[in-house]
Amino acid sequence: MKRWSIALMILSGSIFLGCSKGTSHDHSVAVNTPQPNQMQPGPAQQQSSDMDRVPAYYATEPQADTLAPTLSPDNFWGNSRQAYDVAKKIPQTLAQLPCYCHCDIAHGHKSLQSCFVTEHADSCGICIGEALMAYQLEKQKVPMQEIRKRIIAAYGQGHNHQ
């Protein structure tokens, strides 16, 4: 039983190291989908300003039926399961948040909500952390713009998560 607990603690800790561990983030990959309501720097600016760039997000609440459905939390365990559960509960909130693993460049994601449409978020501590933080703030009735501001302050603008 102790070995299982230790293995679980090690695995849980590795989730929060961030999505860049073991995942290739080729920042030279062009995003081939338009970024919803968010201006992006041109290709020449992307490499020099990646850490200061706010990733893509919906500036206004999208219609629920326009968002792709997120995966079932039943497919995951631990913090991943909690984050996928959050994505099911508050998809429109997550759609209005940037994801600081910069998957908008590497995977064409349109917002944090996009991370939970596939298994991407399962192995990304940034996606998981942002979703859980957003949910806690929403439960406290924090306005959407303030949630976004706090996510950007916690995960963006010069914070190195790689």
Counting DSSP E segments of at least 2 residues, the number of strands comes to: 0
Q: What is the N-to-C succession of helices and strands? A: HHHHHHH
Contiguous low-pLDDT stretches (5 residues minimum) are: 1-18, 20-48
Class per helix and strand makeup: mainly alpha
**Proportion in helices:** 40-55%
As a percent range, the share of strand residues is under 5%
Number of domains: 1
Largest sheet: none
Overall residue-averaged pLDDT value: 77
Question: What radius of gyration results from the CA coordinates?
Answer: 15 Å
- Distance from first to last alpha carbon: 33 Å
Provide a count of the helices: 7
Report the principal-axis shape.
globular
Description:
The protein has helices spanning 2-15, 43-49, 78-89, 91-95, 103-106, 125-139, 144-155. The protein has one domain. The N and C termini lie far apart (33 Å). It is built from 7 helices and no strands. The protein is an all-alpha fold and 162 residues long. Residues 1-18 and 20-48 have low confidence and may be disordered. Helix 3 (78-89) crosses helix 6 and helix 6 (125-139) runs antiparallel to helix 7.
